[in-house]
Amino acid sequence: MADKPAIVLVHGFWGGAAHWGKVITELHRRGFNSLHAVEIPLTSLVDDAARTRKMVQQIEGPVVLVGHSYGGAVITEAGDLSNVAGLVYIAAFAPDAGESCGRISEETPPVGLENVAPDSDGYLWIKQDKFHESFAQDLPADEALVMAVTQKAPLASTFSDTVTAPAWRAKPSWYQVSTADRMIHPDNERRMAQRMNPRRTVELDASHASLASRPGPVTDLIQEAAGV
Question: b/e for 181-206, b at 16 or more Cβ within 10 A?
Fold first, then answer.
């Protein structure tokens, strides 16, 4: 078991570390014992990358960084640490230098974007009654309801934060496209995957919440990136 690298999971917008629950249990079942899920503040890319770096720096030995949604931008920014052995993108943003998640979304807007609304404090929320159809249409209604009520809203300004030096230009990468994604357009996912020239791209018939609706194939990709 000791030869398996540590896995660090980074959630995205409108979620928390618990979104990785099914992947965590599946990785553990497959013998991964060094599992970590970062709880990022979603206040800025700088803050979120710093929190992720702190966790990675506490780990001895190689780490595979896995990012879902905006978590992909975070691992792109934070993945330059020497012990990061690989990057796995799960229906995720993978910005290039000087690029933001907002700019990528504007190029090919996803259909669920119309169900995102700001509050008076500058945070962006998915409308609760639209969460199931926008974020997780392939999950049971009860699971989507819990996600909707417990969603963690990002500061709107985070959408405009730009990546400095993308780690995927230097680190081995893997990418999972969700073909029924309504929060990041599938064509944007394909474009981001293609330009990073990943070791493997996997397309799943899944919503944005593929980490919860398709944990088996998602874990397969992480396991491949871990080299075991």
Answer: bbbbbbebbeebbeebebeebbebeb
